[in-house]
Amino acid sequence: VQLQASGGGLVQAGGSLRLSCAASGRTFSNSVMGWFRQAPGKEREFVAAINWSGSTYYRISVKGRFTISRESAKSTVYLQMNSLNPEDTATYYCAAKERLRPLSTGSSEYDYWGQGTLVTVSS
């Protein structure tokens, strides 16, 4: 099982990026998929998650700026990030849970992880 994240890069403050995460090896159509991020010297933190019926949950600091979506048939999850600011600079990781587990924000509750993609926002 592999989660492949892509789409990171360097962007100026106020700009946008779209991250993608494609799963292979099994389907995650009935699983919660989410995004976490980790800035240098900081702990990994929850960003957003989406379940199989499209319900979403966001950390407060990104709500209204970030949008998580998925293509269940492809077991692919996206994170559209708008109005980026330097505090959003981090390595972003996609993650997935086992089937039918509920939405949650704790990283220890996610079973599968991608390799991370770096997002750098310059001021």
Provide key terms for this protein.
four-stranded antiparallel β-sheet; seven-stranded mixed β-sheet; 11 strands; single chain; globular
Detailed description of the structure:
The protein is mostly beta strands and 123 residues long. It has no helices and eleven strands. The strands form two sheets. Strands 2, 4, 5, 6, 9, 10 and 11 form a seven-stranded mixed sheet that branches. A hairpin with a 4-residue loop joins β7 and β8. The chain is globular and about 40 Å long. The N and C termini lie far apart (37 Å). The model has no long low-confidence stretch (mean pLDDT 95).
Q: Kindly name the structural category.
A: mainly beta
What shape does the CA trace take?
globular
Distance between the termini: 37 Å
Major sheet description: 7 strands, mixed
- Strand fraction equals over 45%
Secondary structure layout plus pairing:
Layout: E1 2-6, E2 9-12, E3 17-24, E4 33-38, E5 45-50, E6 56-58, E7 66-71, E8 76-81, E9 90-96, E10 112-113, E11 117-122
Parallel strand pairs: 2-11
Antiparallel strand pairs: 1-3, 3-8, 4-5, 4-9, 5-6, 7-8, 9-10, 9-11
Task: Report a brief summary of the structure.
With 123 residues, the chain is an all-beta fold. The protein has no helices and eleven strands.
